[in-house]
């Protein structure tokens, strides 16, 4: 039998693969969790773990072959990346089937990775969303000629992120002209242009059903995008838009999210409509209530699982506690007036990545190296 990690961590922060550096929000979170839980906490990266079935039982292993006892709680801070091929989602499902509680769940990450799926759930829950049209196998050239397509409209990829494949189309003629240059294999949505929110939106961070941070993001150059990574400004505003915050809480609940970054647009009547909900939200350093709220959410789930007993499955090697590992979680994607183009990951972080990646050892080593 392979050796197993002794004294395994019961709280994980699961980050995306090396060598991308941690962004500031996630690094600050990992440092706070290390202070709170000490050796009970570890950072793991999705490229450090093998998973499967051995002798009829689900197993986790390092690349070097050590068994990794499953944690009790996993805080998922990996951007979608290969989630679109279900590779990372398969790991999340495996952890859940081993009994770990995921924040957020695999199902929620899957749901938030598709803009149409999000809208379906939000609309069924009776929440306001922009009018949106998409398609399955119909040719795009035919779709854009449908009488249901009204312009101006926002065009964006169903699975896009980082602001890619998002643009405002002012008239039907231009939409038809550009449709031939768009990739047919990439599904798109045609969405109502919310003019009253041009160049600005409201981001609300929700943790365990409570709004813990909010900011208005405004484009500096009059462009549609209010993405901080593209130079937009941000103003903290928690408590200023209680109706919007309440709507954000309902949106997070509808998508089954414990932690959510909810992007709302301003409507002409002074209200809000939902733009997008992110399953891996980022936050600015001044949003000081976010990390304590996440820690409290983890504490709650640990308390719920403590009725079980831990099993010591192995003989050798170390628990992993180092958090300066370097994986890019909070990569900025676009969250603008009706044009948010990320797939369930954080949309706007005005922070630069910190620190370098960890040194990776050869896969024949017993441990791939501390996170």
Structure characterization notes:
With 371 residues, this protein is an alpha+beta fold. It contains eight helices and 15 strands. The chain has helices at residues 24-37, 87-97, 106-112, 115-124, 140-143, 172-179, 242-254, 290-305, and strands at residues 11-15, 41-45, 49-54, 57-62, 73-77, 101-103, 132-133, 153-157, 166-169, 188-192, 200-207, 210-218, 233-236, 259-266, 272-278. The chain has a five-stranded antiparallel β-sheet with strand order 13-12-11-14-15. Helix 2 (87-97) packs antiparallel against helix 3 (106-112). It is globular.
Task: Write out key terms for the chains shown.
alpha+beta; 8 helices; single chain; 22% helix; five-stranded antiparallel sheet; globular; 371 residues; four-stranded parallel sheet
Describe the strand arrangement of the main beta sheet, using strand numbers. Answer: 13-12-11-14-15
How much of the sequence lies in strands comes to 15-25%
**Total helix count?**
8
Q: How many strands?
A: 15
* pLDDT averaged over residues: 82
3D shape: globular
Low-confidence stretches: 309-343, 347-371
Integer-rounded radius of gyration: 21 Å
Percent in helix: 10-25%
Order of helices and strands: EHEEEEHEHHEHEEHEEEEHEEH
Main beta-sheet strand count, sense and barrel state? 5 strands, antiparallel
Structural class: alpha+beta
Distance N to C terminus: 25 Å
């Amino acid at each position: 039998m392979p050796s197993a990690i002794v004294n395994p961590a019961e709280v994980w922060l699961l980050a995306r693969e090396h060598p991308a550096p941690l962004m500031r929000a996630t690094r600050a979170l990992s440092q706070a969790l290390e202070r709170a839980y000490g050796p009970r906490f570890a950072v793991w990266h999705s490229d450090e773990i093998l998973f499967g079935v051995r002798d009829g039982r689900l197993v986790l292993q390092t690349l070097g072959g050590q068994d990794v006892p499953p944690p009790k709680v996993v805080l998922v801070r990996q951007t979608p990346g290969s989630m679109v091929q279900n590779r990372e989602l398969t790991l999340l499902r495996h952890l859940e089937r081993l009994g770990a509680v995921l924040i957020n769940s695999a199902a929620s990450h899957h749901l938030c990775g598709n803009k149409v799926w999000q809208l379906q759930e939000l609309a069924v829950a009776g929440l306001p969303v922009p009018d949106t049209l998409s398609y399955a196998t119909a040719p795009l050239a035919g779709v854009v000629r449908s009488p249901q397509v009204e312009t101006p409209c926002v065009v964006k990829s169903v699975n896009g992120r980082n602001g890619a494949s998002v643009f405002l189309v002012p008239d039907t003629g231009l939409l038809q002209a550009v449709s031939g240059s768009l990739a047919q294999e990439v599904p798109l949505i045609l969405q109502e242009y919310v003019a009253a929110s041009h160049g600005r939106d409201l981001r609300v961070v929700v943790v365990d059903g409570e709004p813990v941070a909010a900011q208005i993001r405004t484009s500096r150059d009059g462009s549609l995008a209010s993405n901080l990574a593209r130079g937009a400004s941000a103003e903290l505003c928690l408590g200023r838009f209680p109706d919007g915050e309440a709507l954000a809480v309902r949106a997070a609940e509808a998508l089954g999210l414990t932690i959510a970054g909810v992007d709302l647009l301003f409507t002409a009547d002074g209200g809000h409509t939902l733009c997008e909900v992110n399953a891996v939200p980022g936050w600015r350093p001044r949003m000081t209530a976010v990390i304590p709220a996440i820690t409290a959410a983890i504490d709650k789930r640990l308390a719920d699982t403590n009725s079980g007993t831990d099993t010591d499955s192995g003989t050798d090697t170390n628990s992993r506690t180092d958090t300066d590992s370097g994986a890019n979680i909070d990569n900025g994607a676009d969250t603008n007036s009706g044009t948010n183009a990320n797939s369930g990951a954080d949309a706007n972080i005005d922070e630069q990545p910190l620190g370098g990646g960890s040194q990776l050892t050869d896969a024949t080593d017993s441990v791939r190296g501390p996170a």
